[in-house]
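Table S2 (continued). Query chain:
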Amino acid sequence: MPIAKLKDVDLYYEVEGETGPWIVFAHGGGDNHLAWWKQVGALKDRYRCVAYDARWHGRSSQGSVLREADETAAADLLGLMDHLKIDRAFLNGHSMGGLAASGVALAHPERVQGLIMTCTTFGFQTAAMSRWAAEMIEKIPKGFHVLDHSFAPDFEHREPELAYLHTALRRLNPPRPVPRESRNYLAAYERMRDRPPESYADFAVPALFILAEQDGLQLPWLVEATAKAVAGAELARVAGSGHNVHIERPEEYLAILTRFLVTHRG
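Corresponding output:
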C-alpha cells in the first residue's frame, strides 16, 4: 500500500500514468482520492496523475496532532510532492483541497506548473472570503450541513446511480474527528473571517477557477470575485451543476480542464 510517511501524518496515495507532466488531485472534505476516478482514468495516458487521501480521510492517518485543513493541507501536499520527487506539477484542488493546492502555489510558485481551483477559493484571503466565512458561521449553527449541499438540488433524481456511488465512496472514510456540533468546527471559518484581505496582483502561477452555477457551498459570487482578484486567472462556468462539478458534469469539466492543461504544459 503506497504511503508517504511525513512529519506527523501518513498519507495514502496512488499514481497512474508513466509519462507527461505531473498533475496532483486534492479532494474535498468528506471525499477521498476515488472522487477523481473519472479524471484520472481519462488523463493517465498523457499525464502522471497523483490522487491522495487527505489526513483523516480514506486510508490516511489522522495525524499526530488534530488540526484543521487550513493549518495542514499545504504542508501535507508539499511533503507528498517531495516524497514522490515531483519538482513541478499541475495542482487541482476541489473544495477543501483548494487549501492544499493554493497553499503550495502561494508559498512555492516554482513548484506549480498550473493551479486549478475546482469550486473552491480556499487559501485566497479576499474581502469576499471574509464575507462568505461570516455567512457560514451564521448558517451552520442553524442547521446548515455542508455535505447536504454537495450536489445540485436535482442531481439524485437525474443521476441516481452516480449519486449512490459517490455516497458509498464517502462511507469508506473514518468518522470525522471534529464533530460538526462542536465549537471547534467553526474555528477554521472564524480564521477565514478574521484574516485581513491580501493582494494577489503579483500572483505568478497560471490559474483556473471553475465555477458551478448551482454551487450551494462555494457560492458563484465568491468564486467570481476571487478569480477577479488573482492576477491572470481564468474563470470557467458550468451550468446545471452543484459543488461536485467533476462528478456531476464530468465531460464538460474534463474539456475545461484539458484545455487548461494543454495550454500550460509547455
